[in-house]
Every structure is written in C-alpha cells, then in structure tokens.
Amino acid sequence: MSDGGCLKDLQWCWYGLFVGSPTATEVLPRLFMGGLNRDEKFYARHSITHVVTLCGYGPPKYLSLQKMHMPMSDCPCSDVVTRIRPIVQFIHKGRLQGGGVYVHCLRGVSRSSAMIIAYLMAVFDLEYDEAFRFLKSKRWCAFPNPGTTRPV
C-alpha cells in the first residue's frame, strides 16, 4: 500500500487533530468508540474486554484485554477492504460474549467511524447513509474520510 498520493489530501489526514474528541462515545450498549485512551480506569468503568486499535498506539499493554491491532492510514487512499470483515467479527464476538468493546483511532473521527459504520451495516443490515446518520446522532465528530468509506 502506497500512501504517497495522500500528501495532496492533508486536510483529511489532519482533520481529526483539530476537530476530533478523545472522549469515548457509547454507540450501542457495550460498544464504544473514540480516540486514543490510555486511562486504565476507563476500561474497567465500562467493562471493556475487547479493544480494536486502528492507529499506532493502543491501551496500556499490561491491561488484560482482548486486543486487535489493525493500524491503517487516515487518508482517502487507504486500503481497508481486507480489514473490514475481521474487525466486524471481532467487535461482534466481544459484544456476544457480554463484554464491552472499544474501537479507536487517534482522535475518534475517521477510521473508528468507518469501522463502526461497517459494523452497523453488517449486523443491522443498514445502508451506509442510515448507519452514518445513526452514528452521527451519537458522536458529533464522526467523519469518515472517503478512503475508509469507499469499501464499506
């Protein structure tokens, strides 16, 4: 995967640094999304058992959590097609087991939004626009970029 072409789209790549919110949002019961959160009390307070990390940094390694680390570029040219199914399955498995699931990227704006939308579409058989509107009603700064939504 080459992200060289992303230089022309820096407005997307940096959008979350200015607008995003590291604060977690509960999208559905036991399904949270947000930015990087290294506060171990957060995971305990919300009974988080599964974490999907879509950026280079995740929760503290010493926390006993089921972790999926799938770093991806936050640019319109990102290739996320091969990552959607395993991420959706991991989220669903965590929720079916009764645990809390936290899906995060750096700021909780684009990459995590795209994967939550993919999950909503897969599990609730929603169209993209329906899933996006639902997510936006829960998290005001949800704004997946075109590179992460094209395959969804």
From TrEMBL:
Limits of the Tyrosine-protein phosphatase domain: 21-152
Reactions catalysed, as given in the entry: O-phospho-L-seryl-[protein] + H2O = L-seryl-[protein] + phosphate; O-phospho-L-threonyl-[protein] + H2O = L-threonyl-[protein] + phosphate
One cellular component (GO) term of this entry: cytosol
InterPro entries documented for this protein: Dual-sp_phosphatase_cat-dom, Prot-tyrosine_phosphatase-like, Tyr_Pase_AS, Tyr_Pase_dom, TYR_PHOSPHATASE_DUAL_dom
GO biological process: signal transduction
Keywords for the protein's UniProt record, in alphabetical order: Hydrolase, Protein phosphatase
Residue span(s) of domain Tyrosine specific protein phosphatases: 78-139
One Pfam family linked to the record: DSPc
Leader sequence residues: none
PROSITE patterns for this protein: TYR_PHOSPHATASE_1, TYR_PHOSPHATASE_2, TYR_PHOSPHATASE_DUAL
GO molecular function: protein serine/threonine phosphatase activity; protein tyrosine phosphatase activity
Family: Belongs to the protein-tyrosine phosphatase family. Non-receptor class dual specificity subfamily.
UniProt-recorded name of the protein: Uncharacterized protein
Species whose genome carries this gene: Lotharella oceanica
Source organism phylogeny: Eukaryota, Sar, Rhizaria, Cercozoa, Chlorarachniophyceae
